[in-house]
Amino acid sequence: MINATKLRIIIRARGIAEKMNRRTLGALLAGSLVVATAAMAIPVTPDPARDGATGTVQAGWSHISRWNEDVSDVWWTMRDGCSPDYLGERLLCDAIRRLAQSAIRTFESKMSADVGLPLPSGWALMTANNSPFIRSAHVEMPLDLKTVLTFYRAALAESGWTEAEGAVIEADRAVIAFTTSDGPASLRLIQQDGKTIADLSQRKRRVAASGFLPKPEHGRLMLGNRTDDAAVVTVNDRIVKLAAHAGESLADSDKAAGELLDNQRLDLSPGTYKITLTVNGKETRSRAFEVTANETWGLLVEEHGVLLPVHLY
């Protein structure tokens, strides 16, 4: 029997992926299903080069436009694998992969054009923010730090960014400041759990109101839930219960951020914190998250136990 998770295609990009022709999707999957039924019992030898590739994509986009011409765009995309055990499943994975790759290319093109920040190939999870206060991208990828660092240095130099003195380059960490024509910028890379996490940001000249501002010498984490289920986020030993859709718009504006309940807005000393997500009484995600002074991040609970980091200020 086919595992339902292997057939998952979740494309929620508002205004982008929703434009995909549903009839085309249905016809393609239906045709694949006919062929796959006959081959369902035939086992296949695992092929990492083929079957380990991304098979599905989950994506979302939030666009806010206000009367004073302020515009905020928040993007997120996550790739999943499609790992078949039988020939029929492989055929279905191939059909899913073709659709997913088309959606990924559309999403990447739109995101890059609007946010204007480079995106390495081979990423697994990406969030991006283009607001009146910041342009930022958080990218997680199963690549070594040296490869990612080389990519960003070349891409940012080509974009006219100038690397400042004092860069910190270590085996599992890199921090580089840049000067640009639009203001100061920074790149932070961390090697964690077999992947490299890249945080690229360019601070704009406008100063946010109190909704986004952490206490002096602190970093701020703001917690929100974009799902229909209640969730629990634990930050070290601090437990935060989130009702369905609580704080789901925190990334839209400093006003929305300022309306969060006190327990959803955490000002923390700089350092690394263990973040655990629990949904329906079951732990779904646990990760380390670095809090940096004078930065504000949103952590948004999405469907399928995903916790999305979005750099807000």
Helix and strand layout, with pairings?
Layout: E1 10-12, H1 22-39, H2 48-51, E2 54-65, E3 71-81, H3 87-115, E4 125-130, E5 134-141, H4 145-158, E6 162-163, E7 168-170, E8 173-180, E9 183-192, E10 195-203, E11 219-225, E12 231-235, E13 238-242, H5 254-258, E14 265-268, E15 271-279, E16 282-291, E17 296-302, E18 306-311
What share of the residues lie within helices?
A: 10-25%
Structural classification: alpha+beta
**How many strand elements?**
18
Task: Report how far apart the termini are.
Answer: 47 Å
What's the shape? globular
Mean pLDDT: 75
Radius of gyration: 20 Å
Description:
The protein is α+β, with helices and mostly antiparallel strands and 313 residues long. The protein folds into three domains: 4-115, no CATH class; 123-206, 2-Layer Sandwich (Double Stranded RNA Binding Domain); 207-313, Sandwich (Immunoglobulin-like). Helix content is 22%, strand content 40%. The protein has helices spanning 22-39, 48-51, 87-115, 145-158, 254-258, and strands at residues 10-12, 54-65, 71-81, 125-130, 134-141, 162-163, 168-170, 173-180, 183-192, 195-203, 219-225, 231-235, 238-242, 265-268, 271-279, 282-291, 296-302, 306-311. α1 (22-39) packs antiparallel against α3 (87-115). The radius of gyration is 20 Å and the shape is globular. Residues 1-55 and 83-92 have low confidence and may be disordered.
What features would you highlight for this structure?
4-stranded mixed β-sheet; single chain; Double Stranded RNA Binding Domain; 313 residues; Immunoglobulin-like
